[in-house]
Every structure is written in C-alpha cells, then in structure tokens.
Design brief:
The protein is of the alpha+beta class and 796 residues long. The protein folds into six domains: 15-102, Ubiquitin-like (UB roll) (Roll), CATH 3.10.20; 105-182, Roll (Ubiquitin-like (UB roll)), CATH 3.10.20.310; 188-273, Ubiquitin-like (UB roll) (Roll), CATH 3.10.20.310; 279-354, Roll (Ubiquitin-like (UB roll)); 360-432, Roll (Ubiquitin-like (UB roll)); 449-795, Beta Barrel (Porin). Helix content is 16%, strand content 42%. It has 13 helices and 37 strands. Helix 1 packs across helix 3 (68-80). The radius of gyration is 39 Å and the shape is extended. The model is unreliable at 1-31 and 439-451 (pLDDT under 50).
C-alpha cells in the first residue's frame, strides 16, 4: 500500500463523490458509483492522527475492488473512532481519496473559583471519563461534566452555585477547557420538623441528628449545611433509636426537603410511623451448636422479657459468628428469624447456626511492604500458618500491625483457596508511610512560657522495625538533649530493648524567685517483656551524674532556696560552701553519681492515644538507687479509665499516686521532687506552685515552691465533642484534686486542693491545644491561683 498524505502533484482526474453514492445506496435509492480497482489510497486533512490509523479502519486495500458497500462501511468506521467530525471519500481516477476533518484535542482542563472540592481530585475524576489533556474534545462529554459538577454542589447544600464552561480554541486544532465556578453561599437549615412522633419529643429526636439549625459553632462543624448523605445518616440514627427501644415496626414514611425561593434556607420534614413497642418472648438457638449451647447462649444479649433492641440482636449474632470463627469455622452462617405476635406485642427469635466446614489457614501473604521487611509484619501475627482459622487472632494480628505506626493502611482478606472448601489464605496488604521525621517545633504554655524542640527520628530504620532518634527540647527551666535506640524484638518472643543517652539542664519553676541549676548526664538500658496482649513489664538500669549549683549573694542571681544549699553542703561541696555561715558571693556545687534500677508494668487497652473514648491505661514504675552517692527509691502509679456515656460523650477518670524516700540514712534528692498545679495536675493553681515552700524572705514573702517526695492527683473530666463523632474539637468540664507533700510530712486528705471548671481541647492543624478556666475551691493563704490556663504545641 502506498501512502501519500503530502503529495503535491496529482493526476488531473475528475473527482467522484463516492460518499454520496454510498449514502444513496444505504438509503435504498438507485444512485450508485461504478466499482473500480484501487491503485492508490491518499489521506487528506490529518494533523495529529497517523495515516496508518486511518488505513487500519478502511475495508479496502490497494489492488482490491472498491464498491459502494465498502465506502459506506469505511465512513461508518472512521466516524466511530471519535477522532473526526467530518469524513468524505472521493476518487481521482483509480486513486481513493479519504478526506477528514479532525476533532480538536484538549490542551488543558482548568478550574477557577473552586473552594469546596480539591482540584486534583476533580482533574483525576474527569480523566477517568476521558476528559483530560491530550484527549479528543467531545462537547457532549463536557456538558455532562458540567452537569455532574453542579450536582455535586447541590449535594453539598450549595444551591446557588453556578458553573460556566468556556472552550477556547488555540493553535494546532486544540482547545483549552475552563470550568469557572461561582459557589455562592451555602444554604442553611432553617427548620427540621418531625411529624407523627408521640413517644419521643422533638427535642429528643433533634439530639440524635448531626444536622442542626445554625448555632454558635456551626461555622466550624458545618452541621447546619444540608447534604443528602448527612440526612441519610440521620434517618438511620432515628431508626436505630426506635429499634433499640422496642419499636420493631417503626418506619420513616417520607422525608421532604424544600428550599426557599432565594435558595438560602432549607426546610426538612420527617414523617414517622412509630408503631408499637415489643418485648422479647423468647430466644432459641437451633442448628449445629458443636456441643457449646450454653456458651453460645451466654453471648445472646437479649433475654426473655427484655424490651426488643435491634442493636443487641445484631451484636448477639455478631458475637456468635465471631465465636464460631475462633473454633475454625470461618464461614459460619448465623441468622435470627423473628416471630411477631402483634396481639401480645411480643417477638420471639430463633437463631439458626450453620457452622459449615472447619477451616484452617494455608498461607499468610504480605504485600505492599516495599521497605519494611516481611518479618517485621509477620512477627506481629498471632494466627499461624497450617493452624485452624481463629477470627480473634486474625483481628488481633491486624491491630498489632497497625499499631506499629509504619503503615497508612492495613487490610486483611481471607479468600478461600481455589479448589478447596476447608482452606483459606490470609492476605495482608499494607500501604507504607514515611517513618523518618525531621522536625522543628515551638510551643507556648501558661506555666513554661516559650518552648523549643527539635528531633530526628527514624521509626523503621532500614525496614527493620528498630527506632533511632535524637531529641532536643528547651524551655524556660527544662532543657534536654537525648539519643535513643529501640529494638522491639531483641528476641523472637518480643522482648524489647531501649537505649538512651541524655544531657538535661533544669532550673526552678517560673513561680519561684530563688535560682539554682541542675545538670544531669547519663544513660540507661531498659528491657520490656510482654506477658499478655495488653501487659508489658520493664526492667532497666541507668547511670546518672548530677551536678547541683547554688547561688548566695551573687550579683545577677537570686539566692537559691535553703533546701538546695543544704543539699549541696551535704553532698561534697568544698571551700566556703561547707562553712556554718556561707559568705556572700558564693557559687557552690556538688556532683553525685547514682545507678538507678527500674522495674515497671504497663497495661493499655485504650481505643486511641490522642482521643480515647473507652478502655484503660495503667502504669506502675519503681526506681531504686541502692548504689552510688545517692540512695533513694521513687514509685509512680497512674490509672486512667475512659467510659462512653450516651452516644458520643466520654467520662474520663485519672488518678496518680507518687512516693519517694531516701535510703541508708541519705536524704531524698531534692531534684527528684514531684510538683503539682496547672494543666496536667490541679488546674486553677499556678503550674508547679502547690506543696511545701521555702522560708519567706523580704524579697520573697511567699517563699518558693519546692515540690515534694509524695504526690496525689485525681481528675474527672466529662468530654463532649462539638459535632457528632468528630473528637478533634471537644469541650469538657472537670474536677481536680491533689497536692504534694514533703518527705517528713504525712499525706492528709484535708491538705488536698480542689478545683473545677471547663475547657476546650482541640487537635488543631498547628498542634494540640488545651484551654481551661478553673476555679479553686479551697485555696489557702499563700497559694498562687491562676484561673485561665492554656497549652499549645506546634511545628514549623
């Protein structure tokens, strides 16, 4: 076949319009062109399309006879490609001439005025339907895209949104497409009306909804902006509330949504048919119970005489199915069939159990880990290959892998092995995330003022699961530089090892006027031994070299509290610092070395570290220094409990008891004292201001807070999210109690300080923010109070 797309000199044969003949033939008319043998084929009008592409759609080749039927087929085939908006076929003698006019190509697709949606996501969505750079321009497709964009705005409650599409021709038969959007103002929900509700008041039903009318915080939550998805979710919440309280046949008969003529106000009406309230007549188990009827029956949360609850029934079915899975029956069918007695308003359930075949795991496959080694994932698994399938172990394995923090996503599937009915594979797919971090940070708190921090961490070094880190923190009176290394699996049994080397400088709290300086250099090694899925015990040893520096009558420095000067005198100060009366202009210091041994236990069953709603956290730590210059022990016990209240509210309880004392005739190190007051302990009192104080002086009539060797703290918080289940922004009310006590002072509940108040907690884009307003209930003379307190950490 000869190609002549750019031939200039052509034979001067008259052209015959074969396209007309082909059309006439297709329409049944008598007009027809004479068949001829094709000696050559020429394509005219192409700019981007290859001539070979056109030839591939032609049903005739050089040397073959061209007929009207082939001409009609050629035109249809070329139009069907979508590349051309006009196609003609003519002949010059025995040369077949294909003349085409190409559709424009898309040079660019752009958006302007869009704030509600992410431009990259819109570009990706349009590309999936063929509207993208370098694709063929199709006006119908552009119109559909415009209508879909308008529909998306309507679903977000932006009824006034206007979309204008501009198609601009440019050189080389291309076009630029621009979607210009005027989003307008979002329509607000003016009123939500319930019709037919008698059992529950409008106020109770409104409390179940995420959608609300405008309020103080709806500018942030956007709960006053209507969307179909939100309304669907709220309708399900209403249904669930009725079903969970016995109204088995409750129905939402209709939902009307109307908008005001100016498209600014939305009115929602929900029509409810409540039905009757049902009680449970009986619950029976039938089917293959594996001789465990009593065990399975204990999992049923609905009992005879209980008010029917759809949630409890669904939870019962789920628990039975999961329990069957722990016995190896991965595909057990558990169904609850109701028998309704409307006259007695009772419902009986028969739970049918079909365990199917017992299944075992053939193979565990790990995918998606391009950096992390397979063994790092596999060692977290509690389900083993060639063992019976255990649903609890698989779920626990998935959670353990997720808690590593190396992956954005962790998904597990258990497909059947082809050709078998009693084997499954466990396929673990992960999406890795960067685990190396370099960060600089700053923060501000009402107690420490400005703080700066920097850190370099590699949490999954070389895909091994080990952590390397360098931390630097500085504040008004605490500075630290530390190097750390953590190996979570020194042994195959999961024993961990942590190594740390540090340098810390401490100065007195901001509430003090007396000055001193404590410099501690040291290191530690710690091993952790897990003995349950939730419990870990730790054993460690460290070495600390501590230098305490005090000032007396030194220009530019306030005198150190007497207790620190006594400590320096007792631990090896030389020169004038050992005199009965220390002369003015004395800078004294003492350096001690200790070897603290540590034993600790931790249990953590919280559902989240940042915003827990359920579970417990406990830790107990005992530090004993029996060798070296220092001789002391120091114990810390903390207990936290999180209890879900109502639908989204949480009751948070925290208690801490700390105790330290000297050993072997040595005093308890003053720099190991505990402090209380401020956010984190007893709000409403200045940070670190509670407890024993130094003797009053002319310049410091209240004395300095010294902390103490004993501390007791108790906190109660009632936490409520501002919107639905979004727990990043919460308000809370609190009651605090606590104090610190000196080594020779007894702990008395009468000496505790109490406070209460409210606050806001926000996981903000710039870091965690906590604001509280506390009112002390029993402040004593000399106590430093501070009602408004806040803490903010940020990164930049």
């Amino acid at each position: 076949m000869k190609l002549h797309p750019a031939r200039i000199a052509l034979p001067s044969f008259p052209r015959r319009l074969i396209a007309v003949a082909a059309f006439a033939l297709c329409s049944g008319q008598a007009l027809a062109a004479e068949p001829f043998v094709v000696k050559d084929i020429r394509v005219e009008g192409i700019q981007r399309t290859e001539a070979g592409t056109v030839f591939s759609y032609l049903p005739v080749r050089v040397g073959e006879t061209f007929t009207d039927e082939k001409g009609s087929a050629a035109i249809k085939a070329l139009y069907a490609t979508g590349f051309f908006k006009d196609v003609r076929i003519e002949s010059e003698g025995n040369v077949l001439v294909v003349m085409v006019e190409e559709r424009p190509a898309i040079a660019s697709v752009d958006f302007s005025g869009i704030k509600e949606f992410d431009k990259e996501q819109l570009t990706k969505a349009l590309k999936e339907i063929g509207l993208a750079e370098s694709r063929i321009f199709d006006r119908a497709m552009v119109d559909r895209a415009e209508q879909e964009l308008k529909r998306q705005y309507l679903s977000r409650g932006l009824y006034g949104a206007k979309v204008t599409t501009t198609v601009t021709p440019i050189e080389r038969n291309r076009v630029n497409i621009t979607f210009a959007v005027d989003e307008g103002d979002a329509a607000r929900i003016k009123q939500i009306t319930f019709v037919g509700n008698k059992v529950y008041s409008d106020k109770e039903l409104h409390g179940l909804l995420n959608l609300t009318t405008p309020g103080w915080f709806t500018w942030y939550t956007k709960s006053d902006q209507y969307t179909k998805q939100k309304l669907t979710g709220d309708i399900e919440s209403i249904k669930s509330h009725y079903l969970n309280n016995g109204y088995l046949e409750m129905q939402i008969e209709s939902t009307q949504v109307s908008i005001s003529p100016d498209k600014k106000d939305i009115y929602i009406t929900v029509n409810i048919n409540e039905g009757e309230k049902f009680k449970v007549a009986d619950v029976k188990l039938e089917g293959e119970l594996l001789g465990r009827e009593a065990e399975l029956k204990s999992l049923v949360e609905l009992k005879k005489g209980d008010v029917y609850s759809g949630e409890k029934l669904a939870e019962s079915v789920k628990k039975i199915s999961e329990r069957m899975g722990t016995f190896g029956y991965a595909f057990a069918n558990v169904n609850a069939n109701p028998e309704i007695n409307r006259e007695k308003r009772e419902v009986a359930f028969t739970v049918f159990i079909d365990p199917g075949k017992r299944v075992y795991v053939r193979r565990i496959n790990v995918a998606g880990n391009t950096i992390t080694r397979d063994e790092v994932v596999r060692r977290e698994f509690r389900q083993f290959e060639s063992s019976w399938y255990d649903g609890d172990k698989i779920k626990n394995s998935r959670n353990r892998v997720d808690r590593l923090g190396y992956f954005n996503e962790v998904n597990i599937e258990t497909p059947e092995v082809p050709g078998t009915s009693d084997q499954v594979d466990v396929n673990v797919s992960v999406v890795e995330k960067p685990t190396g971090t370099l960060s600089l940070g700053a923060g501000f708190s009402s107690s420490e003022r400005m703080t700066l921090s920097a850190s370099v961490h590699q949490a999954n070094a070389f895909g091994s699961g080990k952590t390397l880190g360098v931390d630097v923190n500085t504040s008004k009176y605490n500075r630290t530089i530390a190097f750390s290394h953590v190996d979570p699996y020194v042994t195959d049994d999961g024993i961990s090892r942590s190594l740390e080397v540090f340098y810390r400088t401490s100065r007195p709290p901001l509430v003090n006027t007396g000055e001193y300086k404590i410099v501690t250099t040291g290191g530690s090694i710690m091993h952790g031994v897990p003995f349950t899925e939730l419990d870990t015990i730790y054993f460690g040893i460290g070495v600390e070299r501590t230098k305490v520096e005090t000032y007396f009558g030194v220009p530019g420095f306030n005198d150190s509290p007497q207790v620190y000067r006594d400590y320096v005198a007792a631990f090896g100060a030389s020169g004038p610092c050992t005199a009965a009366v220390v002369p003015a202009n004395s800078i004294c210091s003492a350096t001690t070395t200790s070897f603290p041994l540590t034993a600790a236990w931790q249990r953590d069953s919280r559902d989240s570290v940042l915003t827990p709603t359920t579970g417990q956290y406990q830790r107990a730590n005992l530090e004993v220094a029996a060798f070296g210059d220092q001789r002391y022990y120091r114990g810390v016990y903390q207990y936290q409990q999180f209890l879900p209240v109502f639908r989204t509210m949480t009751l948070a309880l925290n208690g801490e008891l700390d105790y330290g004392a000297g050993m072997g005739g040595k005093p308890y190190p003053v720099f190991k004292n505990f402090y209380a007051g401020g956010i984190g302990s007893v709000r409403g009192f200045e940070g670190s201001s509670l407890g024993p104080r130094s003797a009053a002086t002319a310049n410091n009539p209240q004395g300095d807070a010294l902390g103490g060797s004993k501390r007791i703290i108790a906190n109660v918080e009632f936490q409520v999210p501002f919107s639905g289940r979004d727990r990043s922004l919460r308000w809370f009310t609190f009651l605090d109690a606590g104090n610190v006590f000196a080594e020779n002072q007894k702990i008395k509940t009468g000496d505790l300080r109490y406070s209460g108040g409210l606050g806001i907690s926000w996981i903000s884009p710039i870091g965690p923010l906590k604001i509280s307003y506390g009112k002390p209930f029993n402040a004593k003379p000399g106590d430093l109070t501070q009602n408004f307190q806040f803490q903010l950490g940020t990164g930049f």
